Amino acid sequence: MLQKNILKTIHKYDLISPLDRVLIGVSGGPDSLALLYLLNDLKVKLGISIIVAHLNHGIRGRASDSDERFVRDTADKLGLDFISRKIDWRPRHKHPSEEALRKLRYDFLSDAAKKYRINKIALAHNLDDQAETVLMRLIRGTGLYGLISILPKRRVGSFFIIRPLLEASRLDIERYLRKIRAKARVDKTNLEDNFLRNKIRHGILKELEKINPNIKGTLARFSQQAVIDYDYLRENAKQFLKSGSGSAVKIDLRKFNSSHMALQRMALRLILEGMAGDLRTFTNKHWEEIQDLAANRPLGSIVHLTKEILARKGKGYLLISSRKHKIKP
What DSSP character marks residue 230? Predict the structure, then answer.
């Protein structure tokens, strides 16, 4: 049943093609272990080759080392290549954040993909993870982009990150592992409420299920609808980006000010993503400053967005550029 489910997801989102080299991130937990067994069973049918990757973050001491041995032994049993990286976390922080751990994992997988000429990185996020992420971002505060949550396929440089289990529930995954008699490792930190995600998983979602038993599916569909709306806005916002390069983009001020605020913000998002690489340092205050600059402030006014990027109001245009960019008179 689960195998049919992920095959449907793979074809629906065009996740895998014949001759793909797929790197599977495997922690040893139930989700990633199930993904490993499923893709290994399907590798001939899909025409792919597989490499198993494991990051030993060292947070749990000997237990972390045991996780690495478990994943290595599983890869050996399946006849698959295995790569790993060990990090001594203790000198850095006593209690690493979820975001810090996420960055360490992605850096490792990205480095491995470049080294071994991987074109797809498969991660084991599932339907439950999708629901948890939507709730987490709503609680912290987010816009439309944040509601997109976890995408089934995303390009990162020269490779794609794919998530074949994204439409499968954690319950289906657990049933599959019992069926094939595979016992996963248990990370006890997932049972603690130190992280917001764990509080949502063990508390908030369970309470919401009392109101709506299918709340996870509802949140996942909500996220899918956000993807559709976001893509529409993104395509329409590209009309503002016809003039300029990576270090400087000039926006027609009249067109910008007469457009809907949603299109204005999307255009700015696209420009700033292209210059800064991501939007982690930008806040709602930045968006409001730029919109006020375009609509109300006098010519020559400048808004400093980061140490490297600024917005300047000219005659009939708004210029977003790096500080080093020379402004032509």
Answer: H
Distance CA 61, CA 6 (A): 34
| 10-residue stretch averages of pLDDT, the chain, 329 residues long | 93 95 95 97 96 87 88 96 84 63 87 93 93 86 78 88 94 95 78 70 88 90 86 83 68 89 87 75 81 91 86 90 64
Q: Are residues 74 and 172 in the same domain?
A: yes
Beta bridge partners of 159: 156
Number of domains within the chain: 2
Residue 234 included in any domain: no
- Give me the pLDDT at residue 191, please: 52
Does the residue 29 lie in any domain?
Answer: yes
Amino acid at 250: K
Task: Judge contact between 219 and 284, C-beta under 8 A.
Answer: no
How much is the pLDDT for 326? 58
Length of the chain: 329
Closest CA to 118 of 212, 213, 20: 20
Q: Do 203 and 287 sit in the same domain of this protein? A: no
Give the model's pLDDT for residue 223. Answer: 87
Identify the domain containing residue 256 by its residue range.
242-322
Residue 329: predicted pLDDT: 47
CATH of the domain at 259: 3.30.465.60
Residue 230 lies in a domain: no
Whether the Cβ atoms of residue 190 and residue 102 lie closer than 8 Å to each other:
no
Give SS3 for 228: helix
Q: How many CA atoms lie within 13 A of 214 on its CB side?
A: 5
